[in-house]
Structure formats: structure tokens, C-alpha cells
Fold this protein.
Amino acid sequence: MNIILLGPPGAGKGTQAKMLVDQYQIPQISTGDILRAAVKEGTQLGKEAKSYMDKGELVPDSVVIGIVEERIKEPDCAKGYMLDGFPRTVPQAEALDGMLQNLSSMIDHVVSIEVGKEELVKRLTGRRTCRECGAGYHVMFDPPKTEDVCDKCGGELYQRDDDNVETVTSRLEVYEAQTLPLIGYYKTQGKVRPIDGVGDIKDIFGRITQVLS
Ligand code: ADP
Ligand code: ADP
Ligand code: ZN
């Protein structure tokens, strides 16, 4: 099963993806995570991506398309995968369709997680992430048992550089202008599965697994 998780920054894509990995035993491919790892390692890719990420802008299509093309050819993707944060523009979606056609494969479901803007700002500005294992938390909505310590691995929690009010505002604008058109793109293909993304994390997980089964 090949799935795209679509939704604005803060919709809960990463949170749900981690639960779906356990349920379906297919990998999560997060372009954001791959880019942040490259920034941390200081690779050429990381150096190029950082300036865009800091401003809340999208990294150029050619760069992320190349990353995904490499990744979906890995053996662990043979049984399926979940794309989290990709595609984010119509050219990325078109490139993805092209690569999948070459692999005689296709996307089965586009899970579109819907959350209002006010809630998104609250979620993003309170988000905390584990430095070691990448687990996500929220200072109010999903706090760890011990402040700033990961429940799962004991790692230190940090706040992403781009989770400040200014960058969040531009990321939400970029989403509306460049990513929202993908809903129409995938509606034409009959693949959009809208999900109400407000409420308990486990309830939302139930809504998603229901449409996938
Ligand atoms: P995305 O990957 O779509 O940007 P995340 O999964 O990282 O979003 O979630 C953004 C923030 O919102 C995190 O701090 C997370 O803990 C929190 N969050 C996720 N789902 C919910 C929910 N249903 N209700 C409240 N907060 C949530
Ligand atoms: P979120 O869903 O919480 O906004 P991500 O971790 O998916 O955050 O993305 C963080 C940043 O990484 C984006 O603001 C953008 O600069 C870059 N990025 C991630 N995925 C893509 C993509 N598919 N195309 C272009 N830029 C991307
Ligand atoms: Zn951890």
C-alpha cells in the first residue's frame, strides 16, 4: 500500500505516520526529516536546503524529487510506504506519477488531514521533537512524562528552528499557495480521503485506518 499523507504544517502527519508504521509495517518517508538530517550533518544538500527551511520556504522541486526517487527504490519500500510531506507542489506530484509509472506502481490513497489555521499555529509553536529518535510531543496537547525528556528513548527534546510564529506564518501561506492545489490534482485521480484532524490523536488514527481498510 502506497500512501501520501497530505495536510498543512502541524496537521499531525508525523504523529499519525509513526503510528501507521507500526500498524502496517511500511516505512515513513519524511522529506522534512531527511532534509533536517542533512542540515545537521552539514552535507552539500543540507547547506543548500537550510536557507529555504529557515525562511519557511520550500526547497527547490528538483532537490526533493531526487531524494524521493532514490528513497522509494530502496528494498524496504517494496511492500509499500508512506510519503509524509511530499509531494508539496504540483510539479512534485507530476514527477512522482512519472517515477511510479516507470516502476509500474502507483499511489493508492491520499490521506488529507484537515485542521484549521488557529489550531495549527498552537500546535506548531508548542511542538517538541526528540533529538535522538525523532518522536514528536506538544508542551500542552501531548506532553512527555518528564519535561524535555523523550518517553520512548530518554533523549533530549528540542524545538525546531522553524517552529517560531514568524516562520510558521510563512509556512502556512506557502501551504495554501503551493500545496493546497494538490487536493484538486488527486481528486481528479479519485484518491483523496479527507480526514477530520481535530480531536484525540487515537481517534484520528482510527479515522485513518478505517479509510485505509
Ligand atoms: P506535521 O507532521 O503535520 O507537521 P506533527 O505530527 O508534528 O505535524 O504535529 C504537530 C504538533 O501537534 C505536535 O506537537 C503534535 O504533538 C501535536 N499534535 C498532533 N496531533 C494532535 C492532535 N490531534 N491534537 C493536538 N495536538 C496534536
Ligand atoms: P511541516 O510539515 O511540519 O511543515 P516538514 O518537516 O515537512 O514540516 O518540512 C520542513 C521544511 O522542509 C519545509 O518548510 C520545507 O522548507 C522543507 N521541505 C520538506 N518537504 C519538502 C518538499 N516536499 N518540498 C520542498 N520543501 C520541503
Ligand atoms: Zn526519543
